[in-house]
């Protein structure tokens, strides 16, 4: 049984923020905030797995009231170093059941985080929880990677996704359970703990886009848009990720 609280601890929270670089770069955050602001249509938003506020803070600065749900105490503490509860209220709990309020125009779950839920049932419950937060016609936005099973060599259960100085990312697959374990290997002179290398592992359950759409339908959503990225590029068979916008069906 994976203890997510231990997985996303103080060390993970401290390493998460990379101001101005990677997922925190203006080239990534600018289009993300633009899309989410437009989808909120002047209403309020709730972020599932808000983390340290990478997206929530600039979205709030753009004029959208934002609330959040976050399981990790360490992530919330890091967020609180940046903004107070009065500006971005956060409920500590699991995104499959924790409640941050209701009548939101927008719910969103970015950076592959729905895959942190390791069973199909939990992932469906996440959709159902999003529906409980939204007004009729509200949107639920999910950013997720496309499983790269075509890159698995015959007879092998893993792929090297990133190989660069000081860092390797190796993904190993359990295709029966749709599980991936990402092995993050940091090495080189930048390590200050006296070790030659440091390995961290994060488990995920990958979801095919069609399976995600079925989960949405079970919770009362319909697919409204799907792009390859936040720049709204066309989603194709070669896309490695997608941004999917689901609309809660009015009843």
Quick overview of this protein structure:
This protein is an alpha/beta fold and about 250 residues long. It has helices at about 5, 10-15, 25-40, 55-60, 75-80, 120-135, 210-220; strands at about 45-50, 65-70, 90, 105-110, 135-145, 160-165, 165-175, 180-185, 195-205, 220-225, 240-250. It folds into 2 domains: about 5-145 and about 205-250, Rossmann fold; about 150-205.
If you had to describe this structure to a student in words, what would you say it looks like?
Residues 46-138 form the Methyltransferase domain. Keywords: Methyltransferase, Transferase. GO terms for molecular function: methyltransferase activity. The protein is 25% helix and 31% strand. The chain is an alpha/beta fold and 251 residues long. The protein has two domains: 4-146 and 207-248, 3-Layer(aba) Sandwich (Rossmann fold), CATH 3.40.50; 149-204. The protein has a seven-stranded mixed beta sheet with strand order 3-2-1-4-5-11-10, sandwiched between helices. It has a four-stranded antiparallel beta sheet with strand order 6-7-8-9, with no helix packed on it. The protein starts with a helix and ends with a strand.
Total number of helices: 7
Query: Quick check: average pLDDT?
Result: 91
The CATH superfamily of the largest domain appears as Vaccinia Virus protein VP39
CATH topology-level fold name of the largest domain: Rossmann fold
Estimated helix fraction: 25-40%
The CATH architecture of the largest domain can be given as: 3-Layer(aba) Sandwich
Shape: globular
**Strand residues, percent:** 25-35%
What structural class do you assign from the helix and strand content? alpha/beta
């Amino acid at each position: 049984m994976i203890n997510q609280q231990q997985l996303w601890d103080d060390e993970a929270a401290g390493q998460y923020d990379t101001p101005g670089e990677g997922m925190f770069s203006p080239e990534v955050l600018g289009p993300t905030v633009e899309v989410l602001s437009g989808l909120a249509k002047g209403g309020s938003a709730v972020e599932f797995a808000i983390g340290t506020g990478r997206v929530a803070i600039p979205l709030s600065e753009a004029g959208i009231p934002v609330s959040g749900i976050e399981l990790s105490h360490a992530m919330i503490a890091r967020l609180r170093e940046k903004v107070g509860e009065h500006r971005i209220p956060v409920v500590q709990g699991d995104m499959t059941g924790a409640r941050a309020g209701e009548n939101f125009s927008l719910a969103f779950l970015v950076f592959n985080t729905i895959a942190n839920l390791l069973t199909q049932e939990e992932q469906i419950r996440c959709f159902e929880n999003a529906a409980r937060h939204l007004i009729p016609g509200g949107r639920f936005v999910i950013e997720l990677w496309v499983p790269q099973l075509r890159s698995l060599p015959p007879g092998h259960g893993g792929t090297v996704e990133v190989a660069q100085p000081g860092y390797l990312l190796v993904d190993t697959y359990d295709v029966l359970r749709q599980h991936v374990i990402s092995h993050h290997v940091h090495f080189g002179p930048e390590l200050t703990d006296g070790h030659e290398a440091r390995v961290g592992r994060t488990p995920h359950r990958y979801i095919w886009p069609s399976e995600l759409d079925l989960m949405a339908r079970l919770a009362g959503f319909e697919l409204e848009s799907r792009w390859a990225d936040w720049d709204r590029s066309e989603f194709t068979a070669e896309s490695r990720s997608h941004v999917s916008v689901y609309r809660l069906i009015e009843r």
